[in-house]
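Data availability (excerpt). All sequences and predicted token strings are deposited with the supplementary files. A representative entry, F-box domain-containing protein, is shown inline so that the format can be inspected without opening the archive.
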Amino acid sequence: MSMSKLARGWADLPRDLLESVLARLPVPDLVRFPAVCTAWQSVHAAAAARLRQATPSSPWLMLPFNPTARAGGVAKLSVARFLSLAEGRVYVIRQPAPAARDRLCVGSSADGWLVTADARSELSLLNPITGAQLRLPPAATLPFVDARRGADGRVESYGLRSCFADGGGCGEEALVPTETLGPDRLRYEVYEKAIVVSAPRRVPPCSCWVGYAVLLICQPLGRLAVARAGDAEWALLDDADAPARCWVDAVRASFSGADGSRRDHQPVYTVDAAGRVDAWDTDAATTPSRAVAPPCGCSARSCAMSAACRKYLVELSPGRLLQVHRLRETAHARYAWEPRPEHMEYTTTGVELFEWTAATGLWARADGRVLGGRALYLGKSASLCVPVDVDDAGWCPGVRGGCVYFTDDGPWSHDRCHEVTPDVGVLDLDDGSYRPPRGAARDLLWKWPPPVWVFPSLAG
Ligand SMILES: [Zn+2]
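Structure token line:
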């Protein structure tokens, strides 16, 4: 190449070279790439479809806010901070309203979507990288929730009916008096976990979002509610007249039909408090679940109680499930501040792993080798088994296979306290060590909103 060609500048770099650079950029730089010049914008647009399909390799931790920091105006309220595990640095990204610091995240998908609940307990799907956002059906449409509205139509309180308790339906009399909750308390009391069964995608020419489905595990009885694209209401997936199974976690199954085709809404596996697993078809309106795996208990004395043992379910590969029991102890004794009993905080002390295969139909104890070099991301908002994307030298800084990356999964503080350290850490299954993620210690002095794993994606 002659000197004169070199001197022509960034806009004239060969297209294949730009594409090669693009393929190697971390997500934040990808977002900025098209802003450089029209030539780069053109290359970016052409590569966009391929980029959207790229699997996110290195998750971010969305950090809690410092409640003691002086507010920096509206601008500060509208941003969120993300720690990149691979780079050990923090990105600050502007977020759409309502303010990120007022939202609780109850779901995080491998496609880059979060399910957030705002201060009125309304749920949205949010891509925190691109700012894309869509509202899910109103909380008041959950089958056991009523909204009481003021003259201006705004929700003043929610009524929570727990009359499904004995499995007899509501009948003539409510078995438990309706509980009245403030608009923001519903999200703490009811939203256990949201699972993005299928991610939204835009269809031209109207750019409307289609194809998505979100499964919501609802307390107090661990019921399953589902909302699909176009739904105006949440619908119960499990039978309201049957005894509650107390589902504690769910994971979408990898699925392809006999002809290799994919459906809009993939099947979902759910695990109950006893460790039993069922499979659901979220496409069907009222299809009963199919029993998949028998109960599974660990060595914890109170394995069925979430306070002592928190259960997560991931799919290792089609026909192979992994159940992770996260053993915990109460942590409040270590702090001067004494939480009320219902706000007890926990710290992780270890895990026990159980593998189920379709061939045996049974759970068998497993160790870290069962991950095959992948990493687990587990917490209140996520249950994901993710390949650790290594570079040519077989090295991915900051992210290691054979490790469990935990975020907090205690009963969230209603008081947005900052005196209890969130139970966030990396558990190395090889040596049992449990440490905060690299670069995160300073940011984990606060607890609200609870830190969340985010899998950055430009999709949507
Ligand atoms: Zn257990």
